[in-house]
Amino acid sequence: MENAMDFLLEQTKEKENQAVMALNKAKSELEGYYTQLAQIEKYRLDYCQQLVERGQNGLTASQFVHLHRFLGKLDETLSKQKQAETQFKQQVENCEHYWLEVRKQRKSYEWMIEKKQQEKLKAEAKREQKQMDEFSTLLYSRGAK
After folding, report:
1. Under 8 Å between Cβ of 93 and 84
2. Band of residue 47 on the pLDDT scale cut at 50, 70, 90
3. Per-residue pLDDT at 145
4. What pTM, to 2 d.p., does this model score?
5. How remote is the C-alpha of 61 from its chain's centroid?
6. Least confident stretch, 9-23, 32-46, 129-143
7. What does the H/E/C string look like for the chain?
8. In the prediction, which pLDDT does 98 show?
9. What is d(CA 126, CA 25) in angstroms, rounded to the nearest whole number?
10. Which end of the chain is more exposed for a tag (fewer CB within 10 A), N or C?
11. Which residues contact 125 (CB under 8 A, 6 or more apart)?
């Protein structure tokens, strides 16, 4: 039984390590997403400022249409990026939930192993006490004769 519990504990520790790595990866991907989103938003803002500056210097209709169309594509890209945020957040949440479950399982195994060890020590102490009592009784009975 001890070996089986130790085996289960080791497997659970390995699962927990993998869960932590998956959680860290998901968090890193979410961070990367936010970095990329910020870059796109900054690029859009810079492009809008360029459009205003060029507009003040005079733009042809075709240049304006081209720039306006490009801004529309940037807005579309931003919209798609913002939709992806939910997926990234959900992945972090799923990984965190799984990690907490595996951690709970590991702690349960550790608790059961500890309990078994305590029971074993208690039984051993009880057996030793019984032997000491028997030895004392034997010595007393020999001394009384």
Report:
1. no
2. confident
3. 55
4. 0.72
5. 53
6. 129-143
7. CHHHHHHHHHHHHHHHHHHHHHHHHHHHHHHHHHHHHHHHHHHHHHHHHHHHHHHHHCCCHHHHHHHHHHHHHHHHHHHHHHHHHHHHHHHHHHHHHHHHHHHHHHHHHHHHHHHHHHHHHHHHHHHHHHHHHHHHHHHHHHHHC
8. 98
9. 51
10. C
11. none
Over residues 41-46, mean pLDDT: 92
Report d(CA 38, CA 40) in Å as an integer. Answer: 5
How far apart are alpha carbons 31 and 37 in whole angstroms?
Answer: 10
In contact, 54 and 67? CB cutoff 8 Å = yes
How far is residue 70 CA from its own chain's centroid? 39
Q: Give the C-alpha separation, 97 to 81, whole Å.
A: 25
Give the whole-angstrom CA distance, residue 28 versus residue 24: 6
